[in-house]
Amino acid sequence: MYRRSFKDTKSSLGSPNPNFSKPMVALRFLRALSLVRCSGPGARSPSYRARGIRRAAYACMAASAGPRRAWSRALLRKIRRRPGRGLRRPRAVIRRRRPVGGGDPLEVALRRLVPGGGCMEYCRLLEEAADYVKCLAMQVRLMQTIVDSASHVNSID
Amino acid sequence: MSARRSRSRQAGAGRITDEQIDDLMSKLQAILPEARLGRNDRVSAAKVLQEACSYIRSLHREMDDLSERLSELLSTTEMSSAQAAVVRSLLM
């Protein structure tokens, strides 16, 4: 199953990542979904559950993309950050300030939309944006598939 | 020959050429759905950036919407049967 989907992972932007094949992402997401449900579906409001599902979706997407990508690292950092946690590991990487102070409004907008896009070189930003869009589109398609299947199951019963 | 001034400021170790930027732009353009940019080969960089931003925003909205629908569906469906249906559809 993994070998058959290996060609899906070939991208022109980098070496193929075997973790990021459609069935793998789907299984990871389904596992996360079942965890969201187990944390008290009756007691929580639907909007809380929806936020949990969205967080799980972004986390699975980032985890499947792997640590090679700056956007996936930034996304995981944002998701895993819990308020009130004071411990911060000293980072080996020196974080750069935003190099362009708002020269091109389109570039600024893209930097805001791509996770971790604030401190990148322009070339890196374009690369990361393309990869991010690709993974985002795949995650959306996956969730659409799940919604369609679940609706189908519902209509049968 | 000469890199754009605003880009060469960020060059750091190496000089970023226009060719590199054009190459990355075309790769980004290839990712975007055809309906947004048309079949035109020569699309301006500004147009690519604009469509990329708008596409990302629409994908974020879709993620929110699908999360809402999923949360509604999960409250009514048996998870195991939904999982089975999904796995079946993905393997086909």
UniProtKB/TrEMBL annotation, chain A:
Residues 29-82 form the IBH1-like N-terminal domain. The keyword Transcription applies. Signal peptide: none annotated. It holds the Pfam family IBH1_N. Keywords: Transcription, Transcription regulation. GO terms for biological process: regulation of DNA-templated transcription. This is IBH1-like N-terminal domain-containing protein. It comes from Zingiber officinale.
Automatic annotation (TrEMBL), chain B:
Residues 5-59 form the BHLH domain. PROSITE patterns: BHLH. The keyword Transcription regulation applies. The keyword Transcription applies. Keywords: Growth regulation, Transcription, Transcription regulation. InterPro entries: bHLH_dom, PRE. One of its GO terms (molecular function) is protein dimerization activity. Signal peptide: none annotated. Transmembrane segments: none annotated. Pfam families: bHLH_ILI. GO terms for biological process: regulation of DNA-templated transcription; regulation of growth. PANTHER family: TRANSCRIPTION FACTOR ILI6, TRANSCRIPTION FACTOR PRE. This is BHLH domain-containing protein. It comes from Zingiber officinale.
